[in-house]
Specification:
The protein is built from five helices and nine strands; from the N terminus they run ββααβββαβαββαβ. By secondary structure, it is an alpha+beta fold. Strands 7-8-6-5-4-3-2-1-9 form a nine-stranded mixed beta sheet, sandwiched between helices. A hairpin with a 2-residue loop joins strand 1 and strand 2. Helix 1 crosses helix 2. The longest helix has 16 residues. The chain is globular. The two termini are 19 Å apart. 31% of the residues are buried. The mean pLDDT is 88.
C-alpha cells in the first residue's frame, strides 16, 4: 500500500524538527544552498539567486500535493531555522523501496545533527512508510558522508562507475542500502540510539 505524502507529518527529535517546508523558509535554505562549500560533490550547482530557492520550494510543495515523495526541512529547535534537508528522492511502493537524499549546512557540520535527523528519518521510513529497502548514493570521493551512512547501519553494495557526468567529469557513486530486518536488528541491539526522543506529529494537509 502506497504512503500518503499529502499528509506529511513532522518528526521531532531531541534537538531537531523534520517538517514540511514553506516559502517562509526560503532565506534559511538559500543561506546554505548558495554556499559553495561541498557542492562539488552534489549533482546540482549552488543557488545563485533566492528565486532558485523559491523554485525548489514550489517544486517540493507541488510534489506533496501530487502525493509524490518530498524532502523535509531540518529545523534546529534552538535557533528556529532550517539547517538542512532530508527525504525520499525515489519511492517505489510496489517494491517497498526508497532512496533518500540529504544535505546539511556547512555551518552545522560536526555536531551530530545529520546523524540525529537521519536516524529519525530511517525510523519513519521503516515504521510508518513500511519500506523493506532503503537506499542511498554518494560520490565516492565524498569521504565525510561515508562515516554518517555507515553509522546508520547501511551496507556498501558497490561502486557505480562513471554514473553521472557533472561539473566537467564522470563521477563514481557508491551504492548503500539497509533492509527492514537489518534496521530492526540494529535497533534491538542499540543501547544509545541517535534519536533518544522521537515524536511524529500529523499536520493538516
Amino acid at each position: 500500500m502506497s504512503y500518503n505524502f499529502r499528509e506529511l507529518p513532522s518528526i521531532e527529535t531531541e534537538r531537531l524538527i523534520l517538517r514540511r517546508m514553506t516559502m517562509d523558509d526560503a532565506q534559511d535554505l538559500f543561506d546554505f544552498t548558495s554556499n559553495p562549500i561541498g557542492k562539488e560533490y552534489l549533482s546540482w550547482d549552488a543557488h545563485k539567486t533566492i528565486e532558485q530557492t523559491y523554485g525548489f520550494l514550489a517544486m517540493m510543495e507541488g510534489r506533496r500535493v501530487n502525493n509524490e515523495p518530498v524532502q523535509w526541512g531540518i529545523e534546529l529547535k534552538s535557533e528556529k531555522r532550517i539547517i538542512g534537508i532530508i527525504g525520499l528522492a525515489i519511492y517505489m511502493p510496489a517494491h517497498n523501496r526508497g532512496e533518500f537524499t540529504y544535505i546539511l549546512s556547512p555551518d552545522y557540520l560536526g555536531k551530530g545533527y545529520m546523524t540525529e535527523a537521519a536516524a529519525a528519518f530511517f525510523r519513519f521510513c521503516f515504521e510508518e512508510i513500511k519500506l523493506n529497502r532503503l537506499e542511498g548514493k554518494n560520490e565516492e570521493d565524498h569521504i565525510d558522508t561515508h562515516k554518517i551512512i555507515e553509522k546508520l547501519g547501511m551496507r556498501r553494495e558497490g561502486v557505480l562507475r562513471d554514473l553521472l557526468f557533472q561539473k566537467g567529469k564522470y563521477r563514481n557513486y557508491i551504492m548503500w542500502s539497509i533492509l527492514a530486518k537489518e534496521y530492526y536488528e540494529k535497533r534491538e541491539n542499540e543501547t544509545n540510539s541517535p534519536e533518544k526522543y522521537y515524536k511524529v506529529v500529523i499536520n493538516p494537509a
